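Task: encode each sequence below as structure tokens.

Item 1
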Amino acid sequence: MRFLIAESETPEARSERRDSVGRSSGETYLAVLNRLAPDARCDRIMPADADAALPSDMALAGYDAVFLTGAPLHLYDETPETRRAIAFMRALFAAGTPSFGSCAGLQVATVAAGGSVRPNVRGREAAFARRIVPTEAGRAHPLLEGRPAAYDAPSIHTDEVERLPEGATLLAGNAVTLVQAAEIRFERGTFWGVQYHPEIGLDEVAGALRRQADGLIEAGLAHSEHDVEDYAQRIEALHREPGRRDLAWPLGLDAQVTDEHLRLAELRNFIAHRVAPTHALRR
């Protein structure tokens, strides 16, 4: 199989993420996909970069799947970066290649297909999205296979999907963010996406909190940088020893977050149910 990872972080955001956790969002996806599909060939591009050499529709059609990473893009702002990211997603829909995205990946696909994104109206969702509940359609959808009636997931975002495009299917939501998972069909393409981050480990959650400490304090989620650092350190301790219930319990977390196999459910399901059957037909 051939995978393409579309990393829409700006160069500045990419550098900040590497400084805090040692890898960019695309490099995180690359490591995860190498574990889930070790025989797959993975390429990586940066659609939002000004000097990005983007593949044509025909070249995109040569991939078995495209994965869109998270990124600090505000899709309601008209900037060169958002225009390039949306143009890439529209080319991907036109190519018909199966695609998956998390966080900003879901938002890019939403806007490219005619929906809208806005700042979170119920405040930040930081560190973890709590009590995500599949809709009736979501309970029957292969993207959420194996997920329980309610679950938590790594998540940190300041924007959310305001309106899904016509023809999209809402698959899950929670009290903070209405659209936590969705399927979007547009032109020749089908996109499966989530607002949360199944691909990131707890060390990356801690890094994200540290990078956004000022915003968390401004939002009233923490009183001081010391509070943010204390929370980040407790999350990191659980990352080092994920089997320790005494570390998980104070954070209110269970195996849906601490067990990597369970946490990666959506990515594994996408490859098994959406990508592998199409790849078999193309051989």
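Item 2
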Amino acid sequence: MTTIDVDAYLERIGATRPERPDYAGLCHLTERHMMAVPFETLDFTLREIPSIKDEDVFEKLVTRRRGGGCGELNSGFRMLLEALGYRVTLLGGRVLHNGKESFNGLYNGHAVLRVELDHSYIVDVGFRWCPRKPLRLDARGVQADPHGGYEIVYTPDGDIEMVHDGVTRWRIEMHPRALDDFAATMWFCATFPGVPGAGQLWASIVTEHGRISMFNRVLTEYANGERVSSRVLTDDAEFLKVFEDTYGIKLEKVPDLPVSTEGV
């Protein structure tokens, strides 16, 4: 287990240290992480290969106060949970929906956490449509969440799929994964032009009532499960200000982004 500065991580996400590694503490930490550390693909946009080594993830998320992709966000959260006494397993799988349509994402293109308490829970702080609360693995039927209705469905070959408001979002394999298992995927996503979304900016952060998402220059806000606004930020100065105000990341200039008119 990697030794980290727990107090610095808790300060980064605005969380209180749990008295014990229990369900209430897990819910608090999960929500605070999602509301403080954004999902963002700036590195992929700039064709830079993110490192998933523990020390590099901590430096990026906590010291530099950046966000990251699913592998970085869930890996960083894993370090925090383990340091607080939680039993955590890293799992890998693939995304099955991009916000507009179904597709078959890369194997090990997504990472989630399995946390063992009185029940086994799935935790995901690195996905735009993830639940705010941990999902019980042994629960059948829809689990209510502030972000909608979620259901864990077991496939015939032993994987699990997450269905969110009727949409199958991802499939996860249930055997443990090591961080190195995701390294090739990170390289591929950052360098191969044929990857869906290559060179495009995706960013998202959870708010009290929904989330605020960026797709290239399109800013979209959701509240209570509904899209409440969407607009294209054509002015560079406005883009930079909105990006910093929303995601806490200061950019020197706007990346070279494809033209998009519809958000996700």
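Check on item 2: Residues 182-247 form one domain. The chain is about 25% helix and 25% strand.
End of task.
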